Amino acid sequence: MNHGEVRVEITEPQHEEHELQLLIPEESKRIKLFRKQLKYVMLLVNSEVDPEAQYAHHVMLYSHLIASAEGYLFSTFNHYVTKSDTLLRRLVESDPEVAKMRFDLSEIFVRQETLKETIAKHLNSVIFHNLKSTTKMYASVFGFGFGDISWFYRAVSNRHHCAHRGGYDKAGNPLDINKETIIELTTKLSDLIESIEIRVADFDDDGFRLKPSGKVA
Fold first, then answer.
1. CB under 8 Å to 38, separation ≥6 — which residues?
2. Residue 208 gets which letter from DSSP?
3. Residue 102, Cα to own-chain centre: how many angstroms?
């Protein structure tokens, strides 16, 4: 301001468009796939289906949602752990199943060389919709929890009925699964997975979390 006058200057961006693209972190294939799967669910849940087949249609979509989340949780954990010695060590030291692995002293060097492959095989056997073990693994290795996911536990339980009983409980009663419950579950899973994606993106190549300033935490 100069004697009551306001002067406004507009400057051109300091970076060319192609340079800005380099500054924006590339999104992972894992989150892109998850978003695509949710997009397909929303397209299908809003599609026209014969009324007689509508419940079966919803049951299948419900199961697909849980499977999509499970796929993301597995692939993300596997990706970061097997590429970082720091995170790999945290898993080895905190996972009771890994701790049970035994080998002869003569195998120590071979085991060391193939440790990442061994851990990758172990993770392939882990059921990531077992939320009790999954949340413990994320907390002990990545250092963060999922918050209140009681709704997720209920959804996984429902998914079990969907996969093994066609959407009916042990008493033969249909589950409360409809268009509204699928849309609600889609929203909650999206919020959870997107929040996880943001947090894991903070890890550097050595498995250390970066502070907002760019310094290692």
1. 65, 68, 186, 189, 190
2. P
3. 30
Please state, in angstroms and rounded to a whole number, the distance separating the CA atoms of residues 193 and 67: 13
Mean pLDDT over each residue of the chain, to the nearest integer: 80
- In this prediction, residue 93 carries a pLDDT of 80
What's the rounded Cα separation, in Å, for the pair 112 and 176? 50
Distance CA 85, CA 138 (A): 16
Indicate the Cα dihedral angle 39, 42, 44, 48, nearest 10°.
-140
- Alpha-carbon distance 33 to 76, whole Å? 12
- The stretch 70-88 carries a mean pLDDT of 89
Structure token digits, residue 170: 């042990």
* Burial profile 163-191: b = 16 or more Cβ within 10 angstroms, e = fewer: eeeebeeeeeeebebeeeebeebbebbee
Q: Is 216 exposed, middle or buried (0-12, 13-18, 19+ CB in 10 A)?
A: exposed
Give 71's Cβ-side CA count (13 Å radius). 16
Does position 171 have pLDDT exceeding 90, yes or no?
yes
Tell if the pTM clears 0.90, that is, is over it. Answer: no
Length in residues, the chain: 217
SS3 25: coil
State the pLDDT at residue 211. Answer: 47
